[in-house]
Design brief:
Largest sheet: 5 strands, antiparallel
Strand content: 15-25%
Distance between the termini: 97 Å
Radius of gyration: 56 Å
Helix content: 40-55%
Length: 632
């Protein structure tokens, strides 16, 4: 009982309210945390961008100071040097005044070295970029800032070149001053400017690290592989952006800000762990844990109070409704009364009233249900009988479908076999003719055998033609023909024994039909041939027409022995025949041809009196034609 009480509506409602309050608190807290984290993240990135710009300015000042020194020196020498071009004392003086310069060389406009001072560390290297130096300084008249090169394992130097003008305000270039600049002073300046709580590095335009936070004297002499890999990941993911989040190869995320040195094409990258913002937020948010406890306790007390005041007036009448429903379920003829329930003036009272009305109506429904069950049982019995009938019909249809598929497969196989047999028959026929030529005066017995062979070959070819004619399905080659001329031409070409009389009942009025002439001709010939065979050498063959409004009826009748009902049902099935040597395809070809021309075929037959085939085809009309057959 205690377990059921704790599972009741009251405790579930309290749990739902607590859950809703907790979810809303979590959603609001998550949103506040997310907003504050984004704000902290943006502040951290702004701080990193400030540090990156400061480091870029420090490196840029060192390079710019040296560049201005060379530019001022070449500009002053142009008009105040007292001689046409730089000489050896000029280069020695310039090296003494600036210790960071360890090599100077004066080149003419063709790139040939005229004077030099100091020991060259990159003379071989700058020969590789000599064409770029001459193009920048001589042709364009601009200062050249090259790549960074390593001097042994410990030092780095920068290659610079400046144009030497003939006059101060003249654009004509007399030569080029090439300098190799030691980057020690820049490295020391950067090492003093690097922040202690961030990682920073100076990278060239081709991705080489010059300096990084923690490098000896600020210069990257031995770059760790993981630092190079970090640079590649930053350049690939940051792209043209100045700041953002980058994922490293080990799965860690960092916040990166960059600043570019426009003079040298270098960049400064400053990064910190990406979870720094979340750590700062958590430290600042959850430090006062007592506040969190008071908020949770207040939320629980509020939920319990609201639950008692709101839910108890709902659960008490619902409990009485539950008990009444249990009685209604367990007792067969029980009727719930108003005294069994509580009727508050709200929706629950309306529900109690509905329960009372429902219990009163259940008894009447029970009687109706029993009557409906009896009726349903009767209907089920009738339905079972109908299902059995439909099942038998479905089995018959399935059997017919299987039979049709078998006939199609047999037709395909017969077509293949016919093709394979016709070639040997041609060989036998040719061999027979050759034997007749080789035997000029055969004996009567041999002549009889030759005749039998030729007759059998002709019979076999006739069978093959029938099989192929049925198996092949080609596109209809429709043409418009005059029906009377067409039928009489078929009659004249069809051989009829002497004992059979041919009667022509073709109407004088002729119509046109649009058909495949060869296919319909073969169908008529098969019908006529069957009629001739049915009369067994004596009788009357009648061929005639009857013209209607839209259709024309062509009929072929004979006075043969007639067709039984059983044979009539099967006679158009492929390979069905009542003849000793028939293929069973003659009438199958007829049925197929009429169906392909969307015609109709009817048969009237009486045993001992004869058979009449009636073939209906559409009349072909053109605009202006008369209405055929309206008088018939």
């Amino acid at each position: 009982m205690q377990i059921r009480r704790f599972r009741g509506l009251f405790f579930k409602a309290v749990f739902v309210l607590i859950l809703i309050s907790a979810v809303l608190t979590c959603i609001i807290g998550f949103h506040v945390m997310r907003v504050d984290s984004l704000i902290l993240k943006n502040e951290i990135l702004q701080k990193q961008e400030t540090v990156a710009r400061r480091l870029a300015t420090s490196a840029l000042l060192h390079i710019s100071h040296t560049s201005r020194l060379f530019s001022v020196f070449t500009d002053l020498h142009t008009d105040l040097g007292g001689h046409d071009f730089l000489n050896q004392p000029d280069l020695d003086y310039l090296r003494r005044r600036n210790p960071s310069i360890f090599y100077l060389a004066a080149l003419d406009t063709s790139g040939k070295k005229v004077f030099s001072s100091g020991t060259s560390a990159a003379s071989f290297e700058y020969q590789k970029v000599l064409a770029d130096i001459l193009d920048t300084c001589v042709k364009q008249g601009k200062d050249y800032i090259g790549n960074v090169y390593r001097l042994g394992p410990n030092d780095l130097f920068l290659l610079l070149a400046f144009p030497v003008l003939e006059h101060l305000y003249d654009q004509k270039v007399r030569g080029v001053l090439v300098a190799e600049l030691d980057l020690r002073e820049m490295g020391i300046a950067l090492s003093q400017a690097y922040p202690l709580d961030m990682e920073a590095m100076l990278v060239t335009s081709n991705g080489e690290i010059i300096s990084y936070n923690g490098a000896p004297n600020g210069l990257a002499r031995n770059v760790p592989p993981e630092l190079m890999q970090k640079v590649r990941r930053i350049e690939a993911q940051l792209g043209e952006k100045t700041s953002g989040e980058v994922k490293l190869s080990d799965g860690k995320k960092i916040l990166v800000a960059s600043a570019a040195l426009d003079l040298a094409g270098w960049k400064v990258y400053v990064d910190q762990p990406a979870n720094l913002a979340s750590q700062l937020f958590l430290q600042s948010t959850f430090y006062p844990s007592w506040d969190v406890m008071f908020v949770v306790l207040g939320m629980l007390l509020f939920v319990l109070g609201v639950s008692y005041l709101v839910i108890v007036p709902i659960t008490r009448p619902l409990e009485r409704l539950r008990k009444a429903s249990v009685r209604l379920r367990d007792e067969e003829d029980v009727v719930i009364k108003k005294s069994d329930l509580e009727f508050p003036n709200n929706e629950i009272g309306e529900l109690a009233q509905a329960v009372v009305q429902m219990s009163e109506g259940l008894r009447a429904r029970r009687m109706e249900l029993l009557s409906a069950q009896r009726e349903l049982s009767r209907v089920n019995q009738e339905l079972e009988k109908r299902v059995e009938e439909r099942t038998r019909e479905l089995k018959a249809a399935s059997s017919e479908l299987v039979k049709t598929e078998r006939l199609a497969a047999i037709g395909q196989m017969a077509s293949i076999i016919s093709h394979e047999i016709r070639n040997p028959l041609a060989v036998i026929s040719n061999a027979t003719r050759l034997l007749k030529v080789l035997v000029p005066s055969p004996t009567p017995k041999a002549a009889k055998q030759f005749g039998i062979i030729e007759a059998e070959i002709k019979q076999a070819n006739s069978i093959i033609s029938e099989v192929l004619g049925y198996a092949r399905t080609r596109e209809l080659m429709l043409s418009t023909i005059d029906l009377n001329s067409y039928l009489r031409e078929i009659l004249l070409s069809q051989p009829v024994p002497a004992g059979i009389t041919v009667r022509d009942e073709i109407e004088q009025e002729s119509v046109r039909i649009k058909v495949d002439a060869e296919e319909i001709k073969q169908a008529f010939r098969n019908v006529i041939a069957n009629a001739v065979e049915a009369m067994q050498g004596s009788g009357t063959l009648t061929v005639g027409t009857r013209i209607g409004h839209r259709l024309v009826c062509i009929f072929v009748s004979d006075t043969g022995h007639g067709i039984s009902e059983e044979v009539r049902r099967k006679m158009f099935a492929p390979f069905f025949t009542t003849k000793a040597r028939g293929t069973g395809l003659g009438l199958a070809v007829v049925g197929k041809a009429i169906a392909r021309h969307q015609g109709k075929l009817f048969i009237k037959s009486e045993i001992g009196k004869g058979t009449c085939f009636q073939i209906y085809l559409k009349i072909y009309r053109k605009p202006g034609d008369t209405n055929y057959g309206e008088t018939n």
